[in-house]
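Quick one from the shared queue. A colleague (R.T.) flagged Periplasmic chaperone PpiD as missing a structural entry in our internal table.

Convert sequence to structure tokens.
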Amino acid sequence: MLQSIRDNSKGIIAKIIVGLIALTFALFGVESLIGLGSSEKPIATVNGEAVSTQELMRGVELQRRQILSQMGPDADPTMLDDNLLNRMVLESLIERSLLSQSVEKQGLFFSEEMLDQLIVNTPQFQVDGRFDRNQFELVLRSAGFTPLTYRELLRLETLIDQERAGYVLSSFMTRSEIERIVSLDQQTRDFAYVSLSLLPILNQVSVTEEEIRARYDQNAGSLQTEERVILDYVLLEKAAFVDPGQVSDSEVESLYQQALAEFRSEELRDAAHILIEVDEQTDALAALARIQEVKLKLEEGEDFATLAQIYSDDIGSASEGGALGFMSRDMLVGPFAETLFAMETVGGISEPIQTEFGYHLIKLEGVKQEEMPTRADLEMELRYEIAERDAERFYVEALERLADLSFSSADLIAPSEELGLEVITSEAISREGGTGLLGGHPRVVEVAFSQDVLRDRLNSLPIELDRERAVVLRLNQHQPSRQVTFEEAKDSIELELITEIAKEQLRAQADAWLASFKEGEIPPDMSDDYSWVEITGVNRGAQDVSSEIRNAAFAMNSEELPAFEVITLRNGNFALLRLDEVNRAEADLTEDEMAFMLSFLGSNQGQIEYEGRVEGLRQAATIERN
């Protein structure tokens, strides 16, 4: 058959096919050729313009790679939420489509020559400072792009940047606006507050069973339990395959010889030290004075170890006379290492040196060369290293076998028996998750409520919890959502009613006090248990005052002082605020500071305006998500 195709490819039929392909490319582009055999519905449309599933998949994969790259070499791909990634990328593609339509409508332009120059000057595409075609194609392949798709994406992003720059670079602020902003930022306020606690009133309020029953009847339709599932599962763990007893002596010897060949002896120095910390209680000058005092005692002949026990702030070593043991240079911070390894006399004591921790005196106790441990010393460490390396291979093989068995089996018995795994039953898990090994893993929860597991009652495919554990799920019990009974809801409804009544009473008390203070009177029921907490000279960023209280105080109208206001706190309590004074500050900026603020805040204002433009495009658009 293949030979027949080869033979026919030289004839007139082949020429016609090639001609049709060329025509398709010329008229509709490369994407049309891919789509000839597919009429797949787009994932979304933006003003009638399609966002394809292929674009979404490519975007999700690119986003996944970027996230994993940022997470480092130990990144766990199973911790990424696929649904969240899909939503994020889809919204990004919708926004890109809106902006693409916007720049096209405005007639923005970027020439082919400028595009070429941008690509050639990209450092990632260069080798030894010059553009390299192979490097260019390698980088694009790793990111999932062809030169053509990358070129079009780069053109679009550049045009979008042009529009954004038009907003950011044309926006500005005046000197008077900057002075007003700085003055407001540096403003301080004097105020006071009284806290009104909800708890005492809660303890006094009670409701009848008839009231609870009435609230239950009123809301019975919305009082539903969560849908839950109980799962059977088998757990495959890499740790189960780590068996140092199966490692041969020859493998241990080979790894030891390799370590021996790679070993480089380092000089080790045995040190002791006395540390005087620099902290909130002891500044640098005080710490230096104290360490010099200790140095004088040493010069007078007092014992280093004894002084370390008395004066050193290093809790870990002070009780041992300051002893740190033998250490290599790279185990120590810079100035400490430089001083210790520059000392020439065993028993010698350094001058005071400063590190990030404070001031030290260092005593050199001994010097030796690091020696390669014997094979006997490393025996178990080497065996475990080999066993863990082998376990990775065994685990992957078992994972593949588990996938095959789970797919072909009607239950978890066959996988558990062949692989020696226990069938475990989980706690109940809702669509919001749950507790235990499975309930806290988003991917497990997603699969547990999938059609395959929940409706069709099939085994799941293996789900990797992390790099060393995987599970296969099977439905044990489905607990559909149902209406909560009165007895189940009674306690929570009672608490809800009591809290509502208590808040109403406390709010009434707070409003009555507010009215009294506004009339210049002290409320008659304000006992000595309530007292004003006075706050003076507080700025907008103060950390020693509750942010709720501070923000409310700075939001109060200061036209007539003292001013009073009641606010509700997040914990359900109330606070009565009294604003006493607004301490205004004059903006005192140098010309350089003013120039920076004009540029920075002007650009920031432009970015806000641009974001408003994007939001306006989104609101005016016809967007359909499929």
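Confidence is low (pLDDT under 50) at residues 1-38.
The chain has 24 helices and 18 strands.
Added to the table.
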